[in-house]
């Protein structure tokens, strides 16, 4: 579980804010989910493999088992299934949260996963699948990600192939897990161990490698051989694909007939997001029409979740100091000027400026140099000095464009020019800058 340091935290919050703002434009309302739940309450929405990776502990009051949330979608389903969000449909919900799962240390991912997600509940037709994928694409574009691929499939197709093959229930479950991980050697081993007929085994082996565009659907129909259980998923997938292409998203979409996701509650169109240079998916989602029914009544639903840490690695972020000064002002003075320093700093903060107040040790002779050093070290845009030599009590010394934390600009020592301002003019300037910023 990582500690996110100040510059990275600023960028993470920026990504989260951009994502939630984009999701909100589509009419989604944010929900804040509890950090832990009673195991017996949430368990119906979680598969056995996920429960094994949960962090569990005992509630001292009731003796019941609690768990840190391992999955936000299950929590949303529980909330809706219990009627806490009302009965009006459709419902559009978004969230910014962390999920917690035990991962072996060699797995290369954290045990606390920062997520932003959206869930669309109550839309059964193809427009719901189209909406959630289109929203996902716009979210990725909103944070500045230009190169990405969304692999879209339908779990019903490969599940249908596995059922048709005659695999045992346990063998089918293991084959689904292998297909979800694209573990073809494991899939081959399972098919051989149960002596699946050659034609059926060939179709199952081929499906995870069927990726591309229209030709993928054509080959899928050959493998389906006219069986409704296999052609229906292909028809739905084709409808979603053609809608996305018509909206101009063809270059971002890759059809994948082996797309399976890692959660057993998905039962329709599913998708994962990938970007160059990131060795894991950025997120994904899909349709789960029967998950909410585990907590109440079935409701058609689809959604997605994005891994903020993976997005952070995929998007080019400004280096520290490149994205502007850390502070708007440092207000400095000797200890005898403390009240004036505090007063001016407080007044500037009320204009929505970032301000730090500093009491300088030493004498009037070293006040300016020490104050400049302190302001530059803290990455301030401007410095206000109270009580500088030759400056009366109605005026302040003002420096701006300080040149960075080491006091240099373009590699050279930088001593900015001093201006003499009245206190009234300084505060009026702060208010006018605030008005210009708000008008933008």
Describe this structure in words.
The protein is of the alpha+beta class. It folds into 2 domains: 6-314, Bira Bifunctional Protein, Domain 2 (BirA Bifunctional Protein, domain 2); 327-439, 3-Layer(aba) Sandwich (Rossmann fold). The chain has helices at 6-25, 39-42, 48-52, 72-81, 126-142, 155-165, 169-180, 184-193, 198-206, 214-224, 228-246, 308-314, 338-349, 364-377, 423-439; strands spanning 29-30, 36-38, 56-58, 65-68, 91-100, 112-121, 149-154, 211-212, 253-256, 269-274, 283-287, 301-307, 327-333, 355-359, 380-386, 395-400, 408-409, 412-413, 419-422. The strands form 4 sheets. It has a 9-stranded mixed sheet, sandwiched between helices. Strands 14-13-15-16-19 form a 5-stranded mixed sheet, with helices on both faces. The longest helix is centred in the first third of the chain and has 20 residues, at 6-25.
């Amino acid at each position: 579980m990582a500690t996110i340091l100040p510059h990275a935290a600023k960028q993470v919050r920026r990504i989260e804010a951009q994502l939630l703002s984009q999701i909100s434009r589509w009419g989604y309302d944010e929900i804040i989910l509890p950090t832990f739940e009673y195991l017996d309450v949430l368990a119906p929405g979680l598969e056995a493999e996920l429960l094994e990776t949960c962090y569990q502990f005992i509630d001292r009051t009731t003796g019941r088992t609690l768990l840190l949330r391992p999955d936000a979608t299950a929590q949303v389903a529980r909330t809706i299934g219990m009627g806490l969000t009302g009965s009006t449909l459709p419902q559009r919900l978004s969230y910014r949260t962390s999920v917690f799962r035990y991962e072996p240390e060699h797995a290369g991912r954290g045990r606390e996963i920062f997520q932003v997600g959206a869930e669309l509940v109550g839309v059964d037709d193809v427009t719901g699948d189209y909406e959630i994928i289109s929203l996902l694409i716009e979210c990725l574009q909103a944070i500045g990600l230009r190169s990405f691929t969304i692999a879209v499939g339908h779990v019903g197709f490969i599940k249908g192939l596995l059922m048709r093959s005659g695999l045992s229930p346990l063998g089918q479950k293991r084959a689904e897990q292998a297909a979800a991980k694209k573990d073809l050697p494991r899939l081959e081993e399972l098919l051989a161990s149960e002596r699946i007929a050659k034609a059926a085994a060939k179709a199952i082996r081929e499906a995870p490698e069927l990726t591309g565009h229209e030709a993928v659907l054509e080959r899928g129909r050959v493998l389906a051989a006219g069986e409704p259980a296999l052609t229906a998923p292909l028809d739905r997938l084709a409808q979603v694909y053609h809608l996305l292409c018509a909206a101009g998203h063809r270059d971002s979409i890759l059809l994948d007939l082996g797309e399976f996701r890692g959660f057993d509650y998905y039962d329709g169109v599913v998708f994962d997001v990938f970007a160059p240079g990131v060795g894991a998916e950025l997120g994904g989602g899909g349709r789960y029409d029967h998950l909410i029914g585990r907590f109440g009544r079935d409701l058609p639903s689809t959604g997605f979740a994005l891994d903020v840490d993976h997005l952070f690695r995929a998007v080019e972020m400004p280096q520290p100091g490149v994205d502007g000064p850390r502070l708007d002002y440092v207000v400095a003075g000797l200890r005898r000027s403390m009240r004036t320093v505090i007063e001016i700093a407080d007044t500037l903060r009320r204009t929505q400026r970032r301000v730090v107040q500093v009491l300088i040790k030493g004498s009037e002779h070293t006040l300016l140099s020490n104050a400049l050093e302190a302001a530059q070290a803290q990455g301030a845009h401007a410095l206000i000095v109270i009580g500088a030599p030759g400056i009366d009590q109605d005026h302040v010394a003002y420096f701006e464009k300080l040149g960075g934390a080491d006091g240099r600009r373009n590699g050279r020592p930088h001593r900015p020019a001093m201006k003499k301002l009245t206190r009234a003019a300084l505060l009026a300037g702060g208010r006018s800058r605030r008005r210009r910023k708000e008008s933008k």
